[in-house]
Amino acid sequence: MLDDVKELETEITTSEDQEKETTNAPAQDEPSSVIENDDDEITSMDDFTDTELDVGEGLRKDKVLQCKVIQIDGDYVFVDVNDKLDGKIALAEFENPPAIGDVVEAAVKVVNYDLGDLVLSIDSAKILSTKAKIIEALENDNPVIEGVVKEKNKDFYIVDIGFPVQVKEKEFNNYIDDVDNVIGRSFKFKITKFINKKNLVFLSRRAYLYDLREKQRKELLETLEIGKTVHGIVRDIKSFGVFVDLGGISGFIHISDLSWSRNPKIEDIVRPGDEIDAVVLKIEEVPLENNEGKKKIKINLGYKQLKPNPWNTVSEKYQEGATVQGKVVKLFDYGVFIELEEGVDGFAKKENISWSKYAKSPKKLLKQGEFVRAKILSVDPFEKKIDLSLKELLPNPWEEIHKKYYVGEKVKGTIVKIIEKGAFIKLDETIDGFISVDNIAWSKKRINVKDYLKVGQEVEAVVLDINAENQRIALGIKQFSSNPWEVFKSQHPKGSVIEGRVSSISDFGVFVDLGNDLVGLLHVKDITREKAENLQETFKKGDTLKLAVSDVDVEKKKIGLSEKMYLKAQENKEISEYMKNNEESNKATLGSFIQLKKE
């Protein structure tokens, strides 16, 4: 029976195989369990014992006798049949040479009282005995017989059931690959047809296994219920779950029901051939595809349900602020899952792994399977969430930041991220600084940071401010060069004359490009009345103008220009020159100069 179960197990590989086999009986060349008899053939045990030909002295042909070996001579073994008559059996019929005193079973073949000759046959006894067993099995509606596989011959197996029978290979077992593994072994077969007169027996191992599986299936279905624990053997493993043979029926365990863990590896939990217990979660009948009217039984099982849900006791085991150790089980660019125990894991966000705000991806900082220590930030058993921090167990570099950096210090670092408002620069493994767009260049215009800096570029900067509480360091690059507005103011005091080109014209004035990214404003109030009436017609983009500097506001980065002041200065200059040139004659007067200007 154990061999039958083992072979039945190897025959069932997947739930799909079982569905096909349980809805379609194995194909056979002959009808199932049929006896064909003739009038003079044995058809029952009564026929076997009472209807044989009487040959006198109580001995009948084909009568089976218990015989005791009394002598071995040449090709024959002589036996005592207890009827005051000795018989003989051909030595060749013995599998092993007999010993004096051995008792064997043999059938009467020939009786000749005149010659005192009684010939017996062991092979005939086996055939008669086997035929009787076959008939009895068929009459009792249990058409099963056991036989030993002797050899493999082309498409047949030779099976000894008392006499040799050919069993077609396809009726033996479709799943036998190692022929040598079955030679000499005993198996049970279903008797599908028996022709008594010709000693023909049709056997099928497949049909026997099918009946056995159907019997187990029926018994299992009668006792199966939701919540019941069942025993089975893992047959097939897929990426999405496991198929389990329950004995004639296949059950399925989805990967989510294998373990309380978030991302279990099936191979770490079960392997093909493992005997396991599981809980029945669901039983349903579903129609078979392309098989109208027929249904299959679908059984969902749970493996993790054999253990209590670990999240039920999380609040007792894990408290906020506690330090825990766990295994890295899943890495993402935005964080890492850390398994604290089977079915319970916590999550550490990227910003809680390192003190550096723009550290490398967790995939580059940690390795899957690595054990790490972390601090619990929060626990939510209802949402099944535990927030963790690895950096909280590391020294906080911002607590002693003033010992490491100071305002005005020149530092070097690498650009790690660029945004519209500036760039982040990595100063060391834990500290990042920020360069605001206003501190990249002195230009008053809104610049594109990417035109000045690139990710990965090494730069030198000046520390402008340190805010340990908010964990910020302000850096500047433009501070390595002089403030162009300060330089301009020192070189161009109020009233000085400067030359520039018109860059744009608005309703309130004209903007003039002074070079070195400096732009001055010629306000409409500082333009002569004639020109101010229509700026668009008076001034054109690109026109060169000579103007006077009226004001320089370094803080606001503004330069005021004036045409009126320039003209006034020019007029004063001309008066001075005129007066100087006419001093010797003493004839020059301011009035005469004005009159001259009019002329």
List keywords for this structure.
599 residues, alpha+beta, OB fold (Dihydrolipoamide Acetyltransferase, E2P), 6 domains
Structure description:
Mean pLDDT is 81; it is low at 8-25, 27-35 and 38-56. The chain contains 15 helices and 31 strands. 21% of the residues lie in helices and 37% in strands. Strand 13 (241-245) and strand 14 form a beta hairpin. The protein folds into six domains: 2-33 and 143-210, Nucleic acid-binding proteins (OB fold (Dihydrolipoamide Acetyltransferase, E2P)), CATH 2.40.50.140; 45-127, OB fold (Dihydrolipoamide Acetyltransferase, E2P) (Beta Barrel), CATH 2.40.50.140; 224-306, OB fold (Dihydrolipoamide Acetyltransferase, E2P), CATH 2.40.50.140; 316-393, OB fold (Dihydrolipoamide Acetyltransferase, E2P) (Beta Barrel); 397-480, OB fold (Dihydrolipoamide Acetyltransferase, E2P) (Beta Barrel); 484-573, Beta Barrel (OB fold (Dihydrolipoamide Acetyltransferase, E2P)). The radius of gyration is 54 Å and the shape is rod-shaped. The protein has 599 residues and is α+β, with helices and mostly antiparallel strands. It starts with a helix and ends with a helix.
Distance linking N and C termini: 139 Å
Give the percentage of residues in beta strands. 35-45%
Overall 3D shape = rod-shaped
CATH topology of the largest domain: OB fold (Dihydrolipoamide Acetyltransferase, E2P)
Query: CATH H level of the largest domain: which superfamily?
Result: Nucleic acid-binding proteins
Second CATH tier, the architecture of the largest domain: Beta Barrel
Rg (CA only)? 54 Å
- Sheet with the most strands, sense and barrel status: 6 strands, mixed
Low-confidence stretches: 8-25, 27-35, 38-56
Q: Averaging pLDDT over every residue, what do you get?
A: 81
Number of helices: 15
The total count of strands amounts to: 31
Supply the helix-strand structural class.
alpha+beta
CATH class of the largest domain: Mainly Beta
- How many distinct folded domains? 6
Helix content: 10-25%
